[in-house]
Give the backbone structure.
Amino acid sequence: MNFINTWSDMARGLPPIATPFLDRTILRARSPPSPKFHHTENDPPQTLINNNNDLKNPTQTVPKNPTTMSIVTFTPDQVRALTKKCANPSNNNNSNVRYSTYQIMTAHIWRCASRARGLADDQPTRLHISVDGRSRLVNRQPFPTVKAGELVSEPIARTVERIRRAINTMDDEYLRSTVDYLEDPNDPAGVMQVPGTCRSPNLKIISWIRLPFEYSDFGWGKPVSYRPANLFEGKGNLMHGTDGSLSLVICLEEGAMAAFRKLVHDDDVGGRCSERSATSSRL
């Protein structure tokens, strides 16, 4: 977004707001590379138990069932209701811990998606998270994994705590180990993020909440709306809506999407969310 907004400023005759920084030294591996941890983010994705959809190949990129994309809007009151649930000491032993909006909303989305997909109680489901690593060294993805039955039955505060703990593992020591691992991975194909890695029973939620899209003015006004150009099954983006609301753009299989839209309306949110469903498409 720094690049896009600088480009838009220059298109309007303004000086660059940011000078390009091309020093990649921080991304170099140590000599010799010395990975210290088992990097679970590069493990094969979880696959469906009793899979009836012929999706046994985790690298397969085309789901057998048709998919659809929906945009769900959460009002500020609904976000506050979820936040209040996560701050309830009866649901959370760490009642003094403050959770981010992303952590809270992603916990709710993960639980709803697992219910909507009808996952078996003993089905492992993995959540892919992108962490802003500029203050931690580099951007990598911690993957909390839990059995679906436990996920959907536990208090939401416990799910949020799972996400918070996973994010907190991304410290300097772990991320330097990641850079070393990527210098010579055991399986080069395994470090690539392909559509199959977040397909059911897994999920990937990316935060665009802090991206400054509203400043991208190329001379004909600020953006009216924005969203991901292409989503694949199991991936969603959280971003700011209007008047303090949040929007989720997500792609799921058609059958799961219908159930998901109902589940995000339940009392976990504290009210009904507005929604609009995009045209169904097969990815």
Q: What stands out?
A: Residues 123 and 147 are 5 Å apart (CA to CA).
